[in-house]
């Protein structure tokens, strides 16, 4: 198990503990025996394709759709069966669910009223929150008069107003355009750091998850595929699903042969896999991990001559800061490899469509996953 | 302080006066719920005249058409709301009687009434007030437009020239309609003749109305030249200025009477008896005579304006009992013959 | 398979969770149960009473009557009527089936009967389950009764009651009765298609064009809701009757029949359809239209891809509201239907004309079938319905388009002329001394004291009924709709509630009224005391108009973001705070619509209350019916117009009061 990197100071305290959660809707199992621990002050992202169960998971934590079985502990207290009103969380929905007939100010103040706070304290708190989200001037406006990004921030301020122990974000940015999204991503992350509130966010956008989360929970078909820091998820995918879902990944079918693997007619050394000899596998490597040989600055320092193949450049795509190059070798069969090459390397090696170069598939970057059994 | 005392004492005096008044009222005044089908415009007059002799009885009218009042009474059979029925068709009262809903009572002076206006039972359960008599309302203006001649007899109405110019109430929803049908059966033959007549009449009928007074009002409004209705209605419309003649067909006309009865089980029996006693007095009969040409007490009736004068002699010898006991069968037969046919148009 | 992050805890079976209900949920459930109970008592139980009435059959039980004959040689052995019938083969079992007021003459069982013969007869009953009549004298004992032959012919047997399907058999073997099913379905379908199409066009023009006079059109379109359903019938008589002003337009066809019913139905159902469709169109999101414009979609294409799908819930809802209104209305076909039989009028004929409550109940049961059909459709549609309004959606603002605006204006003007025309005719008729012979103007027709129906008092009563119904009804309906829409869980209770709330629309007022008599007038019923009071009229009216009010409330509530409750709960706010701060203000237009809807319907309803009013609570709308029924058509029109002006007044007050409220609470809409 990898050690979580928490935003707070060590030792990390478990704030939210989910134990064997299952949620069934009739015959359909939306969450299947899911367990997770979330540390205090941590920013966790539930990431996965639509229908993977991430929103169900969030709603179970909030008590909005209580699980069929399994336990939820928040701050050491069993809240498994409690209705939302008896739990401690703030929530921002994809729709923001701002009360349309109340001004921004009143939206934010909504949770503060009725709590035996005097008016001046409420006013001070609302002012503070509006400043916190960067909208001190927008208090008198109705939601319909605000831009999407502003609405989102008001919703966030409203959720934070009561200083909840847990902040739940259900696709909070997906309704926004890319530029605003990028900006808000950053802002929200800073805000979360500053407040130190334990946060669970649901998203289907891997970029969002990678940039914002302390840890990512990758989900698929109602189960957790992997939990880890963004780097871990990216660099060390536990499963083919994770490897495939996050970032770009070359995949090739092959089989285990001795300690190595074969793809087509070629043999490669690969990472440890623990699979039996002769087993069908899928080998995977990220485009940026394919190393062109002979490029300037490249040495044969690691000495290994294994995993080197000569490939023909079939196609090239200029992506600004680098080239994505499509490589093929008849011995690999139909498989095409995509490799990211720096502009320098391309210039240095005179790479062009039709030319041949030598590349290395470093063994420690070459993952081996069991082939999908035809179900 | 003084002011307050005065205020207080005057208040006390007021309270005393009001409460004494209320007490005297409550000792004397009885509320009688009276179901009726008497024309609305007569109700206030009836109550007023009655209250001149009996100021202690307060009438609360429930007025509706004959069919609805009857249905209401039958529906309330197990928990009657009415104390007295004053002014409902005898046919309906026979129905209530056969359900055991009427309290037998022989009103004082009942012997002064024409016998056909009194229930035949040993102790009568109902007594008649006045008769409403079938008649034909004939709009002279509209008839002239269609070159029609005034019919003199029921049989005249079978002539082809009246085709589509005739309207009558549906016996299934209208007491007047049933009265017509039962009179034709009694006049022309209960088994065959009456139905033959109606078969041919049906060919001339434009449509059937739900209510019995409507054909005459429609004739009065020129909506149709000829409406088979009752004389009372025709006279009223004529008085309002409608260009109509009231025709009493020569063969004779059906009739029903408005009658009075006490609902069995009323907890205001004494007051109810007083009302029924009064309802057959000469005074009451004179009161009925304002609108109706034929009333229960012989010799009282004076001619009513616009009423045909030969009305009394044209009234058939009506067998109410036969009509009541065969009503269901007659209506079923009528429905079978005419109702399913009428929609084919 | 690599197992990530899962083995944090032991793998024994996780405990099943039984969610704890929150205090809010319990309070809401309490409300739902109370309103469910209300609907049970005011709807389900009376209907059950009605239903059991339809299975209550009557037949002559010949075995219960015994006869003895003395033709001069002493009394014969007692013989039952059944034995006599078997010998003669006189009456078939079908002939022995009858209704509650059935009568069977006995002399047919004695072939040599002559009323002149000196023969004496005796009759007795074995048990007390039936009775017989001597003339109209009821005999209900088990003694022997002796009669001369002349008296004996006056003996008729009365049926005894049992339970069975006989009434239904009779119904479906009587063509004049079951043909009404076809007639009713045909009229209702035709009226629905015409009304929904017209109303959609009208609503579309109002929301999607920038034509002038929108406010006036909106007002005019609501006129029909302000008058009793039979008023257009009266107007049509004056227009197209035999003395009609423009009867030539019908090319010789009679207005009395399907034509009149359909025209009148379109008139009186138009606003009902318009309200629902307009609500559905009004909440559309401008961004969808902006998207359509950006995609260069034609107006036509936008209509089919954005407008129509967005409004489809409203359209379907409107269609079955109209269908049910038409099929259950009895005032209009009664006034203008002529010989064309419809189900609702059949109930009237059976009950009022023939006092055959059982058959009336059977026809009512037949009428319930379309209702169940409508209910099923609604359930299916509801599942597909999504909340369309969220804080992000931008209200649609129509842009000028000369040609389109003109078409809209002309179209709406034609509809408006139709509506105003019919009303104007009624007012004209009410002021004419004696149509068509004396056209001088007079107020004589307003002298209601001398007409059927309860005079001016009935008018005052109607206003009271309207006010009580509006206040009590809006409270019950909106709270009920809110609870049932927003409570968590309790699926069974919710669908039971939904079912109960949908039912009233299917129940013809006349059936409801009759059912109330059977249910509330039962002395054993603890609620017996409300019988014959204003209370029962209010309850009956609220219940009768529950469905449309409920649908209006639900439609408005569905347009609210489903997550409001979740947000509020997360902020530890009790539901009633969200309800009062957000739900009610946001839904205020709908709430005001419900209250005015209830008021005007209480003013105009006829059928629901015709059996329930008492001397102190006669109603104006019933007066209209009774006056028309009696042929006093002009006074009926006059009272109808009084109802109209009252409702106009009520709407003006309503408008005035609500304008300020709306201005305050709906600022976000115009923002």
Description:
Helix content of chain A is 23%, strand content 32%. Chain A has helices at 54-62, 104-109, 119-132, 148-160, 178-195, 206-212, 230-235, 240-245, 343-349; strands at 14-25, 28-39, 43-47, 69-74, 77-78, 90-92, 166-170, 198-203, 215-220, 223-228, 250-257, 260-263, 266-268, 280-285, 291-292, 308-318, 322-328, 336-342, 356-360, 367-370. Chain A is α+β, with helices and mostly antiparallel strands. Chain B has helices at residues 2-28, 40-53, 66-75, 90-98, 140-145, 175-188, 193-204, 214-220, 231-239, 269-279, 282-289, 311-314, 320-342, and strands at 30-36, 57-63, 84-89, 102-103, 126-139, 166-169, 205-209, 226-230, 244-247, 255-263, 294-295. Mean pLDDT of chain B is 86; it is low at 15-27 and 341-345. In chain C, helix 1 (23-54) crosses helix 18. Mean pLDDT of chain C is 85; it is low at 1-9. Chain C is globular and about 105 Å long. Chain C is 61% helix and 7% strand. The chains are: A alpha+beta (375), B alpha/beta (345), C alpha+beta (671). At the B-C interface, helix 2, strand 2, helix 3, helix 4 and strand 7 of B face helix 6, helix 13 and helix 18 of C.
What is shown here, in short?
With 375 residues, chain A is α+β, with helices and mostly antiparallel strands. Chain A has helices spanning 54-62, 104-109, 119-132, 148-160, 178-195, 206-212, 230-235, 240-245, 343-349; strands at residues 14-25, 28-39, 43-47, 69-74, 77-78, 90-92, 166-170, 198-203, 215-220, 223-228, 250-257, 260-263, 266-268, 280-285, 291-292, 308-318, 322-328, 336-342, 356-360, 367-370. In chain A, helix 3 packs across helix 4 (148-160).
Q: What's the CATH H-level homologous superfamily of the largest domain in chain B?
A: Periplasmic binding protein-like II
CATH topology of the largest domain in chain C: MetI-like fold
By oligomeric state, this entry counts as heterotrimer
CATH topology of the largest domain in chain B: D-Maltodextrin-Binding Protein, domain 2
Content of β-strand of chain B: 15-25%
Strand order of the largest sheet of chain C: 3-2-6-9
**CATH top level of the largest domain in chain B?**
Alpha Beta
In CATH, the homologous superfamily of the largest domain in chain C goes by the name MetI-like
Helix content of chain B: 40-55%
Number of helices of chain B: 13
Supply Rg of chain C: 30 Å
User: What is the H/E order of chain B?
Assistant: HEHEHEHEEHEHHEHEHEEHHEHH
Counting helices, strands and paired strands, the structural category of chain B is alpha/beta
Tally of extended strands of chain B? 11
């Amino acid at each position: 198990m990898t050690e979580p990197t928490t935003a707070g100071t060590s030792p990390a305290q478990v704030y939210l503990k989910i134990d064997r959660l299952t949620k069934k809707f009739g015959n359909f199992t939306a969450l299947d025996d899911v367990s997770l621990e979330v540390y205090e002050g941590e920013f966790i992202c539930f990431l996965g394709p639509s229908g993977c169960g991430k929103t169900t998971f969030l709603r179970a934590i909030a008590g909005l759709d209580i699980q069929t079985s399994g336990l939820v502990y928040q701050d050491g207290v069993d809240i498994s069966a409690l209705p939302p009103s008896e739990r401690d969380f703030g929530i921002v929905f994809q729709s923001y669910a701002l009360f349309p007939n109340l001004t921004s100010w009143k939206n934010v103040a909504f949770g503060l009223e009725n709590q035996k706070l005097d008016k001046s304290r409420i006013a001070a708190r609302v002012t503070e929150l509006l400043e916190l989200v960067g909208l001190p001037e927008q208090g008198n406006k109705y939601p319909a008069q605000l831009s999407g990004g502003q609405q989102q921030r008001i919703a966030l301020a409203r959720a934070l107003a009561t200083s909840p122990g847990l902040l739940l974000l259900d696709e909070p940015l997906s309704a926004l355009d890319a530029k605003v999204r990028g900006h808000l991503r950053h802002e929200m992350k800073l805000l979360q750091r500053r407040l130190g509130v334990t946060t669970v966010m649901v998203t289907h956008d891997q970029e969002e998850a990678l940039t914002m989360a302390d840890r990512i929970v990758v989900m698929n078909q109602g189960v957790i595929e992997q939990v880890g820091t963004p780097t871990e998820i990216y660099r060390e995918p536990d499963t083919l699903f994770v490897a495939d879902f996050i970032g770009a990944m070359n995949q090739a079918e092959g089989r285990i042969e001795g300690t190595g693997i074969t793809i087509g007619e070629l043999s490669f050394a690969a990472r440890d896999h623990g699979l039996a000899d002769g087993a069908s596998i899928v080998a995977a490597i990220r485009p940026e991990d394919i190393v062109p040989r002979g490029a300037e600055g490249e040495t044969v320092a690691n000495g290994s001559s294994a995993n080197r193949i000569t490939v023909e450049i079939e196609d090239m795509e200029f992506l600004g800061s680098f080239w994505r190059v499509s490589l093929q070798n008849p011995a690999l069969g139909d498989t095409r490899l995509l490799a990211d090459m720096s502009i320098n390397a391309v210039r240095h090696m005179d790479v062009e469509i039709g030319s041949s170069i030598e590349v290395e598939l470093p063994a420690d970057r070459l993952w081996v996953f069991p082939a999908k059994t035809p179900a | 302080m003084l002011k307050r005392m005065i205020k207080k004492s005057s208040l006390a005096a007021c309270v005393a006066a009001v409460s004494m008044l209320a007490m005297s009222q409550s000792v004397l005044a009885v509320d009688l719920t009276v179901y009726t089908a008497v024309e609305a415009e007569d109700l206030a007059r009836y109550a007023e005249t009655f209250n001149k002799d009996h100021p202690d009885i307060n009438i609360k009218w429930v007025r509706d058409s004959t069919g609805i009042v009857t249905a209401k009474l039958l529906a309330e059979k197990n928990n009657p709301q009415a104390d007295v029925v004053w002014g409902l068709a005898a046919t309906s009262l026979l129905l209530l009687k056969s359900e055991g809903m009427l309290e037998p009572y022989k009103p004082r002076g009942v012997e002064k009434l024409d016998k056909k206006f009194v229930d035949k039972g040993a102790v009568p359960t109902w007594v008649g007030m006045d008769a409403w008599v079938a008649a034909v309302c004939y709009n002279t203006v509209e008839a002239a437009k269609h070159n029609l001649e005034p019919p003199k007899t029921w049989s005249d109405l079978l002539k082809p020239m009246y085709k589509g110019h005739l309207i009558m109430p549906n016996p299934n929803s209208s007491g007047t309609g049933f009265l017509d049908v039962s009179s034709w059966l009694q006049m022309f033959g209960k088994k065959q003749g009456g139905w033959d007549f109606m078969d041919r009449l049906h060919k001339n009928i434009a449509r059937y109305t739900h209510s019995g007074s409507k054909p005459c009002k429609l004739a009065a409004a020129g909506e149709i030249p000829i409406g088979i209705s009752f004389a009372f209605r025709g006279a009223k419309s004529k008085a309002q200025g409608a260009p109509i003649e009231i025709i009493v067909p020569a063969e004779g006309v059906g009739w029903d009477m408005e009658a009075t009865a006490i609902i069995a089980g009323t907890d205001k029996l004494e007051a109810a008896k007083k009302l029924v006693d009064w309802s057959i007095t000469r005074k009451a009969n004179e009161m009925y005579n304002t609108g109706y040409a034929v009333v229960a007490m012989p010799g009282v009736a004076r001619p009513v304006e616009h009423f045909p004068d030969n009305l009394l002699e044209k009234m058939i010898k009506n067998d109410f009992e036969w009509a009541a006991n065969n009503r269901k069968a007659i209506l079923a037969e009528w429905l079978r013959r005419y109702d399913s046919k009428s929609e084919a148009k | 398979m690599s197992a990530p992050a899962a083995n944090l805890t032991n793998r024994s079976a996780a405990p099943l969770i039984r969610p704890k209900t929150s205090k809010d949920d319990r309070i809401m459930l309490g409300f739902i149960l109370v309103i469910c109970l209300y609907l049970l008592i005011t709807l389900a139980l009376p209907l059950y009473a009605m239903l059991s009435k339809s299975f209550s059959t009557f037949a002559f039980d010949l075995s219960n009557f015994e006869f003895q004959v003395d033709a001069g040689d002493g009394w014969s052995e007692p013989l039952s009527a059944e034995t006599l019938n078997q010998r003669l083969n006189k009456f078939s079992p079908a002939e022995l089936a009858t209704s509650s007021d059935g009568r069977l003459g006995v002399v047919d069982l004695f072939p040599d009967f002559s009323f002149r013969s000196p023969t004496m007869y005796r009759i007795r009953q074995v048990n007390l389950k039936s009775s017989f009549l001597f003339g109209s004298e009821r005999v209900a004992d088990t003694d022997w009764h002796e009669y001369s032959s002349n008296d004996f012919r006056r003996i008729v047997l009365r049926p005894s009651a049992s339970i069975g399907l006989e009434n239904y058999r009779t119904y479906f073997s009587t063509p004049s009765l079951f043909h009404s099913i076809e007639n009713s379905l045909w009229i209702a379908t035709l009226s629905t298609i015409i009304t929904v199409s017209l109303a959609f066009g009208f609503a579309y023009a109002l929301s999607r064009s920038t034509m002038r006079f929108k406010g006036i059109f909106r007002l005019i379109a609501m006129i029909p809701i302000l008058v009793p359903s039979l008023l257009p019938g009266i107007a049509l008589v004056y227009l197209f009757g035999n003395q009609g002003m423009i009867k030539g337009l019908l090319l010789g066809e009679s207005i009395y029949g399907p034509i009149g019913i359909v025209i009148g139905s379109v008139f009186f159902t138009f606003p009902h359809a318009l309200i629902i469709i307009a609500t559905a169109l009004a909440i559309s999101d401008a961004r969808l239209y902006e998207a359509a414009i950006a995609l260069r979609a034609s107006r036509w294409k936008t209509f089919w891809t954005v407008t129509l799908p967005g409004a489809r819930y409203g359209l379907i809802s409107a269609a079955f509201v109209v269908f049910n209104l038409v099929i259950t209305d009895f005032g209009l076909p009664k006034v203008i239907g002529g010989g064309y039989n419809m189900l609702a009028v059949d109930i009237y004929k059976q009950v009022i004309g023939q006092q055959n409550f059982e058959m009336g109940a059977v026809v009512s049961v037949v009428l319930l079938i379309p209702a169940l059909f409508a209910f099923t459709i609604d359930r299916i549609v509801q599942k597909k319905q999504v909340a369309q309004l969220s804080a992000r959606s931008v209200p649609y603002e129509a842009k000028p388009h000369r040609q389109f605006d003109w078409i809209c204006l002309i179209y709406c003007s034609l509809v408006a002329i139709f509506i105003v025309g019919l009303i104007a005719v009624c007012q004209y008729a009410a002021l004419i001394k004696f149509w068509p012979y004396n056209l001088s103007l007079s107020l004589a027709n307003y002298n209601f004291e001398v007409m059927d129906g309860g005079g001016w008092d009935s008018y005052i009563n109607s206003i009271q009924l309207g006010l009580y119904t509006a206040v009590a009804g809006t409270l019950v309906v909106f709270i009920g709709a809110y609870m049932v829409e927003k409570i968590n869980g309790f699926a069974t209770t919710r669908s039971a509630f939904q079912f109960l709330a949908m039912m009233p629309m299917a129940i013809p007022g006349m059936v409801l009224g009759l059912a109330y008599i059977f249910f509330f007038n039962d002395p054993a019923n603890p609620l017996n005391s409300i019988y014959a009071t204003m209370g029962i009229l209010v309850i009956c009216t609220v219940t009768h108009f529950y469905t449309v009010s409920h649908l209006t409330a639900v439609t408005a509530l569905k347009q609210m973001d489903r997550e409001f409750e979740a947000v509020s709960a997360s902020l530890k706010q009790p539901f009633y705070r969200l309800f009062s701060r957000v739900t009610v203000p946001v839904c205020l237009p709908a709430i005001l619509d419900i209250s005015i809807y209830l008021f005007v319907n209480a003013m105009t309803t006829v059928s629901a209350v015709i059996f329930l009013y008492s001397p102190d609570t006669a109603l104006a709308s019933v007066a209209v019916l009774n006056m028309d029924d009696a042929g006093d058509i002009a006074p009926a029109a006059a009272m109808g117009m009084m109802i109209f002006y009252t409702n106009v007044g009520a709407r003006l007050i309503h408008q005035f009061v609500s304008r300020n409220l709306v201005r305050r609470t709906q600022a976000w809409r115009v923002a």
